[in-house]
């Protein structure tokens, strides 16, 4: 399988200017400015093969969107080596644009005041798609995304979910081998998310479309991606299989208790002293979650101590979620390379 994306020692720096105080400082700023260099992406190296669906995750400000903008040619790297679809995204812009599709959750590539199908026709000319290719490919896309009834409507009259489905269709109008998705399901309801995920899986299976997905919704990653790349302060701290991340960092269990009366953390810690357990209060009133190792004896002892001390409405035992694992990694600053 060929490499679709090759990145080596990629770096992007920005200058952050600060103003001096007072009139004298403002006058000095006219001639010289104080600034510091911020490194948004810090010497990352990455290879993505044809047909892979990769989740690119990290907290706000970790450098995800900056990376995507360099890979799509929007930003020029400060230093490093980038090849996407065998081209330099910054030096072969027109040819390169024909080989990628991009969906930014916060930006639109459709014309606001004209019907969706008119936007599609304009993009068809931009991408130089033949009538035959357009008909064969877009009939399937329109049907799969269920946007046929929307084609005659102006974009401004669409709901967010409807618009995002049309945005996705527009990004795939020329059937590119590589698709960049930056927060594609932000603000969408569950049914629309499911429809989009199903469609992306289908495109990947049918055309071997390579997908790089950045999102804060980890259920998107779990539904679509086997591999995740985790970014923190501009550096890659994990690049590997999602299952491996779970095995290494999510071996414990969550035992959730719903209490009939009000309890405090101090009470719970006192009653379960001697057991290796961490207590966290859930959002729902009266619900506490105990994080423990995946050990039957430990869980049995924990449940016995809690049940003998309090009136319990409900108990459930769950695997530690991917979201919880990743939150713990960031909060505790664990390096997982």
What would you note in describing this structure?
The chain is of the alpha/beta class and about 325 residues long. It has a domain at about 250-320: Alpha-Beta Plaits. The protein contains 12 helices and 13 strands. The protein has helices at about 20-30, 65-70, 95, 115-125, 130-145, 160-170, 190-205, 220-225, 240-250, 265-270, 295-310, 320-330; strands spanning about 5-20, 35-50, 55-60, 80-85, 100-105, 180, 210-215, 225-230, 235-240, 255-260, 280, 285-290, 310-320. The strands form 3 sheets. Strands 5-6-7-3-8-9 form a 6-stranded mixed sheet, with helices on both faces. It has a 4-stranded antiparallel sheet with strand order 11-12-10-13, covered by helices on one side. Strands 2-1-4 form a 3-stranded antiparallel sheet. It is globular, with a radius of gyration of 25 Å. The model has no long low-confidence stretch (mean pLDDT about 90).
- Shape summary: globular
| Topology-level CATH name of the domain at 252-319 | Alpha-Beta Plaits
Number of strands: 13
Helix-strand string: EHEEHEHEHHHEHEHEEHEHEEHEH
What is the assigned CATH homologous superfamily of the domain at 252-319? Answer: ACT-like. Chain A, domain 2
* Top CATH class of the domain at 252-319: Alpha Beta
* Spatial separation of the terminal alpha carbons: 25 Å
Question: What would you report as the Rg, rounded to the nearest angstrom?
Answer: 25 Å
Uncertain segments: none
In the CATH classification, which architecture of the domain at 252-319 applies?
2-Layer Sandwich
């Amino acid at each position: 399988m060929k490499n679709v994306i090759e990145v080596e020692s990629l770096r992007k720096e920005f200058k952050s200017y600060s103003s001096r105080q007072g009139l004298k400082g403002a006058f000095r700023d006219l001639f010289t400015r104080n600034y510091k260099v911020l490194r948004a992406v810090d010497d990352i190296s990455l290879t993505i093969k044809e047909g892979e669906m990769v989740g690119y995750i990290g907290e706000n400000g970790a450098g995800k969107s900056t990376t995507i903008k360099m890979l799509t040619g929007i930003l020029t790297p400060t230093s490093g080596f980038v090849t996407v679809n065998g081209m330099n995204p910054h030096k072969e812009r027109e040819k390169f644009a024909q080989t990628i599709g991009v969906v930014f959750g916060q930006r639109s590539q459709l014309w606001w005041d004209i019907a969706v199908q008119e936007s599609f026709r304009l993009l068809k000319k931009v991408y130089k798609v033949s009538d035959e290719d357009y008909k064969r490919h877009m009939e399937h896309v329109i049907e799969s995304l269920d946007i046929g009834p929307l084609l005659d409507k102006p974009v401004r009259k669409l709901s967010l979910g409807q618009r995002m489905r049309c945005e996705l269709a527009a990004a795939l109008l020329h059937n590119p081998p590589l698709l960049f998705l930056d927060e594609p399901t932000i603000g969408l309801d569950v049914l629309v998310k499911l429809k989009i995920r199903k469609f992306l899986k289908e495109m990947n299976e049918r055309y071997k479309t390579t997908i790089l997905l950045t999102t804060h919704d980890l259920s998107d990653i779990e539904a679509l991606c086997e591999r995740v790349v985790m970014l923190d302060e501009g550096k890659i701290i994990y690049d590997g299989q999602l299952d491996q991340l779970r095995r290494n960092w999510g071996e414990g269990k969550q035992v959730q208790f719903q209490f009939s009366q009000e309890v405090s953390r101090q009470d719970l810690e006192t009653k379960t002293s001697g057991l290796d357990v961490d207590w966290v209060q859930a959002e729902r009133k009266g619900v506490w979650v105990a994080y423990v190792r995946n050990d039957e004896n430990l869980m049995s002892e924990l449940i016995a101590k809690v049940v003998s001390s309090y009136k319990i409405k409900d108990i459930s035992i769950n695997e530690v979620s991917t979201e919880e694992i990743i939150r713990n990694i960031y909060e505790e600053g664990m390096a997982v390379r």
